[in-house]
């Protein structure tokens, strides 16, 4: 077709449709990682009329900004159980950043260390691809660290000298549940021995809080009871606009 020539109605309609689709859906980043391909997507839901950020690992959906209540409650409940006025907090799993940002809303937090296994995920925040990225980039208390959280808990890897040696609260949101893990190497963490290794990284009266996508797991509660002085499983309910019903998650809090 010559430059400047008119286009037929089908071609013009197709161009308009492509613009509509591109305005409603955008893949912000796609990376091949050691865990598989990971992608960050932004889309406008035509029915809910909201902007949604989603993360996929391979063909599996990991997280969505449409559902953030439980991630925020992980920080809220974990810090509510924490003592003291100058808290050093460790977050395992950065994701879309909602747990970390909520933790920074607590004025008692002196330092926040966020560990994520994928530098690509940390890069999303450093590049400002996510709505709350500025908070984590500008708050001097926050530090984003690329590393294997589970290896750090086992002692197979070490934090650098700038990171506190013990934490007043450790907030974990990496695996779907203690039974449904993202990698087989994570399974050993959810045992008495694994949690005792984590406990060694807690300050006296420190708190461990864990997000799970399943209802309270009696067997895992028994494991927590064998490792900590006090444990509870808090069911967090939140509206699900996709089903027009209610969904739940669980936050375990152990002291």
Report Rg.
21 Å
Strand element count: 11
Give the % helix: 25-40%
At CATH level 2, the architecture of the largest domain is: 3-Layer(aba) Sandwich
What are the low-pLDDT stretches, counting only 5+ consecutive residues below 50?
Answer: 1-7, 11-22
CATH class of the largest domain: Alpha Beta
User: How many structural domains?
Assistant: 2
Overall structural class, as computed from helix and strand content, comes to alpha/beta
CATH fold name of the largest domain: Rossmann fold
Q: What's the number of helices?
A: 8
Strand content: 25-35%
Ends: how far apart?
71 Å
- The CATH superfamily of the largest domain is Vaccinia Virus protein VP39
Which geometry do the CA atoms define? globular
Order of helices and strands: HEEEEHEHEHHEHEHEHEE
* Overall pLDDT score: 89
Largest sheet: 7 strands, mixed
Query: Strands across the major sheet, in which order?
Result: 7-6-5-8-9-11-10
Question: Can you describe this structure?
Answer:
The chain has 255 residues and is an alpha/beta fold. It folds into 2 domains: 9-64, no CATH class; 69-254, Vaccinia Virus protein VP39 (Rossmann fold). It is built from 8 helices and 11 strands. The protein has helices at residues 9-24, 69-80, 98-104, 119-126, 133-138, 149-154, 192-199, 218-227, and strands spanning 25-33, 36-44, 51-57, 60-64, 87-92, 109-116, 142-146, 167-172, 202-212, 231-240, 245-254. The strands form 2 sheets. It has a 7-stranded mixed sheet with strand order 7-6-5-8-9-11-10. Strands 1-2-3-4 form a 4-stranded antiparallel sheet. Helix 2 packs parallel to helix 3. The longest helix has 16 residues, at 9-24. The chain is globular and about 50 Å long. The chain starts with 8 loop residues before the first helix and ends with a strand. The relative contact order is 0.12.
